[in-house]
Amino acid sequence: MRVLVLGAGQLARMMALEAIPLNIEVQAFDVRSDQIVDPINQQVLGEGLQQALRDADVVTAEFEHIPQVVLEPCEQSGKFLPGSRAILSGGDRRIEKALLQQAGVASAAYAEVHSKAELEAAVQQLGLPLVLKSALEGYDGKGQWRLKQIEQIDAVWTEIAQFLKQASKKAKQGIVAEQFIPFDYEVSLVGARGKDGQCVYYPLTENHHVNGVLSVSLPRLAHPLQAQAERMFQLLANELDYVGVLAIEFFAVGDRLLVNEIAPRVHNSGHWSQQGADTSQFANHIRAVCGLPLGDTTLLRPTLMVNILGLDQLPDCVLGIAGVHLHWYGKAPRPGRKMGHINLAADSTNSLGQRFAELIALLPAEDFPELSQMQSRISIS
Ligand code: AMP
């Protein structure tokens, strides 16, 4: 069995590593270079999407910002899971918001805006503050503006108009104005839906961001909002007739969840599952798209994940902490780039807290900003 992944980054690589013991081969299609590569070592295996599609039994994706010229032939191949509609919903906030409404899943009230007049109308309709988001290519807080006061409309729209002018002519960029949600915390649900429609869910994971980028993820056992999150997952996954791993990011407001966004793929907030669950999200995605039974998603032991941004080395002594597992992505370092992650596991939440403190003491503070403050904010036990 051969799986072709659209995108050749770390997510494809971690899927490939999990596919090896299942006797499943994973190749990746690098959308930018048009090359077929081995996602583990980036070795070039061939050229062109047509060849890649012919040679694959199943086609899937590790990212959602995929050009239409690539999506169309994938859909036509009849091998593409979770399918174009799911990918487009993850890659375009207008389609995503419409999907959420159609599935009857709660999210921040919104309006599409194309002009200053429409922005003024959105302020009337939704109130302030607003979060303005680019419809395409927005991730990790990029392509976002905050509008807090009515006096800022002119200045904010000038910036947005400039942004829209510079946008690629190929894809139709736009703006979604969303009500600002004064949330208590952010969680995500990673789950998988098989070809038979059966779903499995990992525990809700609490996510902590620094400058809009995920820094720490901590799965929570028996979270009071787990059942609500699973119901919303099912509504969305059924609406899309989804096959594979799907991640949903939520804002928690009191005892209510609102969807922030969906990711039609394995997700950074599910990386802890490599050490904390019997079957990781990567293995379950491969199982789902290949039509195999899904694996157990139960949290086996307290675990957390810390992202490594911009660095390609850590002191060796980090591995000396019991329960530490390093996952490097083999990428060239650039400031802020996701280079790897650390999974930390322990037999009890107390011990996890202690090991987290040991880990923070060994990590270079300048490369892990706010981790120490986060340690005091995150209640692990
Ligand atoms: P996103 O790229 O949509 O995930 O947004 C990045 C971050 O901005 C989120 O993780 C939130 O912390 C914040 N954010 C996004 N949308 C809203 C909103 N409607 N209300 C409040 N905060 C938001």
TrEMBL record:
Any one Gene Ontology MF annotation carried by this entry is: 5-(carboxyamino)imidazole ribonucleotide synthase activity
Instruction: Give me the segments passing through the membrane.
Output: none
Q: Which residues form the signal peptide?
A: none
EC number(s) of the enzyme?
6.3.4.18
One GO cellular component from the entry?
cytosol
Q: State the Gene3D superfamilies in the record.
A: 3.40.50.20, ATP-grasp fold, A domain (3.30.1490.20), ATP-grasp fold, B domain (3.30.470.20)
Its GO biological process annotations read: 'de novo' IMP biosynthetic process
Q: In which pathway does it act?
A: Purine metabolism; IMP biosynthesis via de novo pathway; 5-amino-1-(5-phospho-D-ribosyl)imidazole-4-carboxylate from 5-amino-1-(5-phospho-D-ribosyl)imidazole (N5-CAIR route): step 1/2
Q: Which positions in this protein are listed as binding ATP?
A: 93, 133, 138-144, 178-181, 186, 209, 260-261
| Keywords, comma-separated and alphabetical | ATP-binding, Ligase, Nucleotide-binding, Purine biosynthesis
The UniProt record lists the ATP-grasp domain at 97-290
Give, as one word, the top-level EC class.
Answer: ligase
List the catalytic activities from the record.
Answer: 5-amino-1-(5-phospho-beta-D-ribosyl)imidazole + hydrogencarbonate + ATP = 5-carboxyamino-1-(5-phospho-D-ribosyl)imidazole + ADP + phosphate + 2 H(+)
InterPro entries named among the record's database cross-references: ATP-grasp (IPR011761), ATP-grasp_carboxylate-amine (IPR003135), ATP_grasp_subdomain_1 (IPR013815), PreATP-grasp_dom_sf (IPR016185), PurK (IPR005875), PurK_C (IPR040686), PurT/PurK_preATP-grasp (IPR054350), Rudment_hybrid_motif (IPR011054)
PANTHER family documented for this protein: PHOSPHORIBOSYLAMINOIMIDAZOLE CARBOXYLASE, PURINE BIOSYNTHESIS PROTEIN 6/7, PUR6/7
The entry describes its oligomerization and partners as: Homodimer.
**Function comment:** Catalyzes the ATP-dependent conversion of 5-aminoimidazole ribonucleotide (AIR) and HCO(3)- to N5-carboxyaminoimidazole ribonucleotide (N5-CAIR). Catalyzes the ATP-dependent conversion of 5-aminoimidazole ribonucleotide (AIR) and HCO(3)(-) to N5-carboxyaminoimidazole ribonucleotide (N5-CAIR).
The Swiss-Prot or TrEMBL record describes its family as follows: Belongs to the PurK/PurT family.
- Protein name (Swiss-Prot/TrEMBL): N5-carboxyaminoimidazole ribonucleotide synthase
Q: What is the lineage of its organism?
A: Bacteria, Pseudomonadati, Pseudomonadota, Gammaproteobacteria, Alkalimonas
Q: Which gene encodes it?
A: purK
